[in-house]
Here is the input.
Amino acid sequence: MNSFPVNIHFHGWLTTLIQRVRRSNGLLAPPLNRRTSIKDLIESFGVPHTEIESIQVNGHSVSFGYIIGEESFVEVFPPQPPVNVLIPNLLRPRVLNAIRFLVDANVGKLAGKLRMAGFDTLYNPQWHDTELADIAAKSPCILLSRDIQLLKRKKIEFGHFVRETLPNKQLAEVIHFYDLSREIRPFSRCMRCNGSLTPVPKQEILEQLEPLTRKYYHSFHQCESCNQAYWSGSHREPMKQTLKELTRYRPLSY
Ligand SMILES: [Zn+2]
Here is the structure.
């Protein structure tokens, strides 16, 4: 059995994710008593692999499977927005072919916000950790969560620890982090079920409408999956408020 020290240095906001007892902005030197992969070593500090963009050992970039040798100086870097999950890098050679989110219940209100802005978003408050990990493995997507233990699961390749606590700010954080402001498509996706919205003649959905809506609104959309009707009062006003928040947003440092 090998036993040797290794110096590991976390950069940027990763220091805040490190388990409290080991939290430090400087050098850390945990003893290794076996041949440990760099991924296991990093996660032993409480930092999920999803929060890491690159790792260097003695100045050279390495992948998660790298086995640490003696006299290693390890540096771990967080992603810096804008993060592009559609192009490969050393840590994530397999990429997503489209932006799709999977939302954990601990940031549940973010799901409706993302759909309101037109982003493909999987969400069910009943899904627990095992189901979320299975879904992430089967249907490539970015898991959004505030659960560090969940983000450490092997099956989850793409994930983001949501730092903001208010839903509108969480939306702004995600849009800024993945540089999606040009991809916002209001009135394109159902907030209830994630289905696509299409314009629908008023007479086809009359029975869904309250008398005042029937009287004052004339332009409607309907969900292709669940038939929910949307009109400007139901969608555009909340969206306007959300967009205002987006323009006001002051990005976090990473
Ligand atoms: Zn729907």
